[in-house]
């Protein structure tokens, strides 16, 4: 984490968070460039000497500056929509390093990705194989294909972000995978290049990854015996981060366990999202007012669930950092937003002395923060700023109220 206290004031790298809030206003997303670079290198270092491709999962944080930074570090990208592909290309990402995941790719998205020349489609169903073959045939192209296998392992994470169980919608059941591969190999406009899996997100243990990868390798060997030779194995994303007291393996520890399982002739593809960006980010809000109803003390910020959904959607516990260090001690309070929903909270039962006008930051907000934000209650979305050393760059302007209804229109007079 790149934040720390200096003279009792919260800093991100060498920038004072209070000064940034003054300059750019609140709510404000701040990202540390150094933190992203270090996280990327933590994956890249142990992979040296292996054929590999780190495909950053764009959904975690899709700001063009973040994508551009990762592209410059050599990253590929894991996308789940045509919109994400367009972002990657606008940010200077190389389409040849893109893998395209997702259970519901449209024909238009397939055509867009085929024309862009992506590395491969991570196909999630037999229906998708047929559709992709047809779209590629129309364009006179051959689609590179990996099949996403559902290995039926328990990722031991929150049920909304577990994806590798047989009751989940993702992937093709591993028992049905050999048939799907045979079918893919028989379709003239598909070329089978790999196998992939993604078992869930915010995993804090290595064992479920190991179990899943072992099953994939068994499948790969079986396919090879059937004459279907793969060139890559995509182990997905999912490595957890420490928000408060979790102790996930580091990328190096995780890779030390999983890389030896994978035959050296296979290119290792990874799809980390959260682990690259979560702890680079802070969401900063200002206290509008406080209230004590005799039962509970509430600290009401100018930011809430519309800017950061994770606490209410996943009961996620994210660190609360008063911008003035001393305010991290104080009466037990709920940190809430202004949105008209009971679920509009960012933290519960935290010691916090902040009063009107004070600033409070939420840590770990670099992943699935801004990308999941909304304009609910007609709240313009936050500004985003990239910090590097003592410099700060606005990478997304704060929305205006006019942005809120751009594209809407009044009914014609005659229609009422
Ligand atoms: N690959 C695929 C196919 C995925 O579905 C995902 C995440 C990733 C990679 C990246 O996973 P990561 O390394 O970030 O764990 N909004 C939730 C997380 C949803 C994850 C969805 N898929 C949250 O805020 O916890």
Overall shape? globular
Q: Structural class per helix/strand content?
A: alpha/beta
Ligands, ions, cofactors: ligand LLP
Total strand count, please?
21
CATH topology of the largest domain: TIM Barrel
The CATH class of the largest domain is Alpha Beta
CATH homologous superfamily identity of the largest domain: Alanine racemase
Provide the gyration radius in Å: 23 Å
Spans of at least 5 consecutive residues whose pLDDT stays below 50 are none
Mean pLDDT level: 96
Give the percentage of residues in beta strands. 25-35%
What is the level-2 CATH architecture name of the largest domain? Alpha-Beta Barrel
What distance separates the N and C termini? 57 Å
Number of domains: 2
Helix content: 25-40%
Q: Compute the number of helices.
A: 12
Characterize the main sheet: 9 strands, mixed
Features:
globular; 416 residues; 9-stranded mixed beta sheet; 8-stranded parallel barrel; alpha/beta; single chain; binds ligand LLP; Lyase, Ornithine Decarboxylase, Chain A, domain 1
Explained architecture:
This protein is an alpha/beta fold and 416 residues long. It has two domains: 3-30 and 278-405, Lyase, Ornithine Decarboxylase, Chain A, domain 1, CATH 2.40.37.10; 102-270, Alanine racemase (TIM Barrel, Alpha-Beta Barrel), CATH 3.20.20.10. It contains twelve helices and 21 strands. It is globular. The model has no long low-confidence stretch (mean pLDDT 96). Ligand LLP binds next to helix 10 and helix 11. Ligand LLP binds at residues 57, 60, 78, 101, 161, 198, 201-202, 236-239, 271-275, 310, 314, 368.
